[in-house]
């Protein structure tokens, strides 16, 4: 398919590997420039639409993961902040924590200078309270920035889906119109 911005449509752009959809103003010019017949053009556009839907599902899954991850990081920051606030007071911290889904245990945490953080892939490291705060803050900023980029990608993708759906409708309607014209020429009306 040609990506020129002549009479057939606007310029095609790309965002983070998501190809831009071409809005088709003149279907005849689009078909001529792309070298496709109507059925091939519709098949190409339907395939592109399916690709967009697949990418959308992946991005939505990533968005759900990030939206679940951000509150977890914030909770960890709160716990580390509470431990820092209790430091030097000689007062123990009584905490309920989840052992497994739906199973909780109570712990009495004496004054501590360090915490252990899960990094993923079954890896846990011990950090000082200050290092843990810095790491969690950085992770929170990165997660929020990633979520913003993801939301922008989803908005771009939804625009491409809309443009592709409109283009499919325009090509289909143009084909129906052309067939009616051909049919009217082939069967002249009697007076």
From TrEMBL:
InterPro entries tied to this protein: PFD3 (IPR016655), Prefoldin (IPR009053), Prefoldin_subunit_alpha (IPR004127)
Keyword set, alphabetical order: Chaperone
GO molecular function: tubulin binding
Signal peptide extent: none
Source species, domain of life: Eukaryota
GO cellular component entries: cytoplasm; prefoldin complex
GO biological process, one term: response to cold
Subunit structure, interactors included: Heterohexamer of two PFD-alpha type and four PFD-beta type subunits.
Job description of the protein: Binds specifically to cytosolic chaperonin (c-CPN) and transfers target proteins to it. Binds to nascent polypeptide chain and promotes folding in an environment in which there are many competing pathways for nonnative proteins.
Family of this protein: Belongs to the prefoldin subunit alpha family.
Name of the protein in its database record: Prefoldin subunit 3
The organism of origin for this protein: Arachis hypogaea
């Amino acid at each position: 398919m040609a990506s020129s911005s002549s009479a057939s449509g606007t310029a095609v752009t790309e965002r983070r590997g998501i190809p831009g959809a071409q809005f088709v103003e003149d279907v005849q010019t689009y078909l001529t420039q792309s070298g496709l017949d109507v059925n091939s053009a519709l098949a190409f556009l339907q395939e592109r639409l399916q690709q967009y839907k697949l990418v959308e599902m992946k991005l939505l899954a990533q968005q759900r993961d990030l939206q679940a991850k951000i509150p977890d990081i914030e909770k960890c920051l709160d716990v580390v902040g509470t431990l820092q606030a209790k430091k030097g007071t000689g007062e123990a911290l009584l905490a309920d924590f989840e052992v497994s889904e739906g199973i909780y245990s109570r712990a009495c945490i004496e004054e501590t200078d360090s915490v252990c953080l899960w990094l993923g892939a079954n890896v846990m490291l011990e950090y000082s309270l200050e290092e843990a705060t810095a790491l969690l803050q950085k992770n929170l900023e990165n997660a929020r920035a990633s979520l913003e980029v993801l939301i922008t990608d989803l908005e771009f993708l939804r625009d491409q889906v809309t443009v592709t759906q409109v283009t499919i409708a325009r090509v289909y309607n143009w084909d129906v119109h052309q067939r009616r014209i051909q049919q009217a020429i082939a069967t002249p009306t009697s007076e």
